[in-house]
Design goal:
This protein is α/β, with parallel strands linked by helices. It is built from 14 helices and six strands. It has a six-stranded mixed β-sheet, with helices on both faces. It binds zinc ion.
Length: about 300
């Protein structure tokens, strides 16, 4: 009798616990480690699996398309340009995500970044088509990522981003190639760029000029990864952690605009140190507090110090 009563009580109390355990084990069964998700994605990002259509190529497994990129990266026709873009993308994701989840040379970062990797993988695994599209001389940036919300209608990039669709990245092969824009006035070419009439004519009708000192972006996997970080809603900022900049600097060896390897190594170490800072990331969801820490610990000086070293 006594036994029976005890058993009954135990059973009533155990049921919710059992239900909880069961749901946990169901969730656990569906849990796929980040490393495994990354491996699957990298296998799908194989140019050999792509099929070609009029505007470019499509990778069905990875739900990804490359449009108008026959001149990627430096605005010159290259055989297999679109395949090269997929290769760069693959390399960028491998290096970037491994770094975020603590498997890169930087070692373990704060777990906040593993969560960011999880969010990025979610986007990449989603059914939506990810578009990588090239334009020539249509932007003042090397690349621009789309965001969930379009910019205001009056924004110069509104149409371009709307046509591309989210998630997407628009790459400007003129800017990446360091080429002088063809959109200036004849007067600007004459007085500012010091071109004579024949040079202006050749620039506008023949092959566009690349003037001395115009940077040609080398680390394209880093550029592509940087853009995809923007898909997570991280915007550039001087007063709070600039995620795209931090990941690019820590995970890809500094800046493409700095040629001195030693300086790059120093900036890389600073960015990685910031990404490991427990105080900073345990306050990631308290924006004001995090902003104060960012400033107090002088992490806000990294980006401007790097700018001072651009060649
Ligand atoms: Zn950016």
């Amino acid at each position: 009798m006594r036994f029976g009563k005890t058993a009954r009580i135990t059973a009533t109390r155990t049921l919710p616990l059992l239900a909880a355990l069961l749901s946990f084990s169901v969730q656990a069964a569906g849990f796929i480690p980040l490393e495994e998700r990354l491996d699957t994605l990298l296998e799908e990002l194989d140019p050999d699996l792509a099929f070609r259509h009029e505007e470019g190529i499509q990778l069905a497994g990875a739900r990804l398309q490359v449009r108008d990129c026959q001149n990627y990266p430096y605005n010159q026709p290259v055989a297999d340009a679109e395949e090269r873009l997929i290769e760069d993308l693959r390399q960028g994701l491998k290096q970037g995500i491994e770094c975020m989840i603590g498997n890169g040379p930087a070692g373990r970062l704060h777990s906040y970044h593993e969560y960011q990797a999880h969010l990025l993988l979610n986007t990449l695994e989603s059914a939506e088509t990810k578009t990588f599209r090239c334009v020539a001389d249509r932007m003042f940036a090397n690349a621009v990522a789309t965001t969930e919300q379009l910019p205001p209608r009056k924004d110069a990039l509104y149409r371009l981003l709307r046509e591309t669709g989210h998630p997407g990245v628009v790459l400007d092969t003129f800017r990446i190639g360091g080429l002088l824009s063809t959109r200036h006035s004849p007067e600007t070419y004459r007085s500012f760029f010091k071109l004579d009439d024949q040079q202006i004519r050749e620039h506008l009708t023949g092959s566009p000029l690349r003037l001395g000192g115009n940077h040609r972006y080398q680390n394209l996997p880093a550029l592509l990864f940087h853009e995809m970080v923007h898909w997570l809603g991280h915007e550039h900022s001087a007063i709070r952690p600039d995620m795209a900049h931090l990941y690019e600097t820590c995970c890809f060896g500094g800046s493409d605009y700095i040629s001195d390897p030693q300086k790059n190594a120093t900036f890389q170490a600073k960015a990685c140190q910031a990404l490991k800072d427990v105080d900073l990331w345990s306050n990631a969801y308290k924006p004001y507090r995090q902003m104060r820490l960012w400033h107090y610990k002088e992490y806000d000086l990294i980006k401007s110090a790097m700018r001072d070293n651009y060649h």
